[in-house]
Specification:
This protein is of the alpha/beta class. The chain has two domains: 7-47; 63-313, Purple Acid Phosphatase, chain A, domain 2, CATH 3.60.21. 27% of the residues lie in helices and 23% in strands. It has helices at 7-19, 24-31, 35-47, 89-101, 132-150, 165-173, 219-227; strands spanning 64-67, 72-77, 105-108, 154-158, 193-195, 197-200, 207-210, 230-233, 240-246, 249-255, 280-287, 290-291, 295-301, 304-307, 310-313. The strands form two sheets. Strands 2, 3, 4, 5, 11, 12, 13, 14 and 15 form a nine-stranded mixed β-sheet that branches. The longest helix has 19 residues, at 132-150. 42% of the residues are buried.
């Protein structure tokens, strides 16, 4: 007889399940559990009477934030996997571009944290992984740098699968601490609005920004096709733009790339294999409420990025 699953764990599981569009594979991966375990938890949640949010519920219940922007700029970067030490070139460029372009909206699109010590994956040998406290300290410093550079811009943080490790770990190992200040990730980053997705102008011609959707080498194409509008995601680190044109016009699937150094210490588990990743972020310009063709800011060498035909030192 298995011991009862704590209510806090069941509620966290349901939230993750709805946030991933009731996709069991994606939900199980984000929680670091087997699919069979997820199914057991969902059954237990139904038996316990924990409500499954209606598909037509309010945007807030889905973890969605909707904002309007007629004319202005959105800067979105993803996957910084902040680590103790010097900031990456992409992070320095992100701060510099926030100061220069004065965006109306800034989105840090998930996996700001890495949390290797509370991962279900074993560490690479005897390599020292940073303490959770160290990760919080460096992430708070980096996000404060972005916040100061972006001024009055709205600041959103759609959580990634690495970010969610913190609350999943606590809900699984210390369920009695539910509701205590500091147990939620957002308690430590009050300047940033946590969510699962940001809808900029929720209509055709608008933009959806979320950490991940489809996977694989054709992810940007499939994202734009299945989302039905322009969509920017992270998670895959491969920075690219794929236009999709049909009778409804042109929309874009954008992979924001990776704000971390692609050969940084966070990724030692790849054993120095080549990786089809690019470091950088994206700039989105809106005119009369419609998204213009997105632009990439791409790291070309340490201390330098490429943008609009120019090399910019940062």
């Amino acid at each position: 007889m298995h011991p009862p699953i704590p209510t806090e764990v069941l509620e966290a599981t349901v939230r993750a399940y709805m946030a991933h569009g009731q996709n069991q594979v994606a939900t199980a991966d984000s929680l670091g559990i087997a699919r069979s375990t997820l199914q057991q938890r969902l059954k237990a949640a139904r038996r316990a009477g924990i409500p499954m949010p209606d598909a037509n519920a309010t945007p807030e219940s889905k973890g969605r934030r909707e904002v309007s922007l007629e004319n202005g700029i959105v800067i979105a970067g993803s996957d910084p996997h902040y680590w103790p030490g010097e900031p990456s070139t992409a992070h320095r460029a992100f701060v510099a571009f926030c100061k220069k372009l004065k965006p109306a909206i800034v989105v840090l699109n998930g996996d700001a944290m890495d949390f290797p010590r509370i991962s279900r994956h074993p560490p690479p040998g005897w390599t020292r992984m940073p303490e959770v406290k160290e990760e919080f300290e460096v992430a708070q410093e980096r996000l404060q740098e972005i916040a100061e550079a972006s001024g009055k811009a709205q600041k959103f943080w759609p959580w990634g699968n690495h970010d969610q490790r913190w609350e999943v770990y606590l809900a699984s190992n210390a369920p009695e601490s539910a509701g205590v200040t500091g147990m939620r990730l957002c308690d430590h980053f009050p300047l940033w609005e946590p969510c699962y997705s940001v809808f900029v102008n929720n209509r055709p011609g608008g933009l959806v920004i979320k950490h991940r959707f489809k996977g694989g080498i054709h992810a940007t194409w499939n994202n734009a096709v299945y989302a039905g509008r322009s969509i920017a995601t992270g998670h895959l680190h491969s920075q690219r733009i794929t236009p999709v044109t049909d009778y409804n016009g042109t929309r874009y699937g954008v992979d924001l790339g990776c704000m971390a150094d692609i050969y940084g210490p966070q990724f030692q588990y790849l054993e120095d294999n080549p990786r089809n990743w690019r470091s950088g972020f994206a700039v989105f310009t809106f005119r009369d409420g419609t998204l213009l063709p997105p632009e990439l800011v791409t790291v070309i060498e340490p201390g330098a990025v490429f943008f609009r035909g120019e090399v910019v030192d940062v």
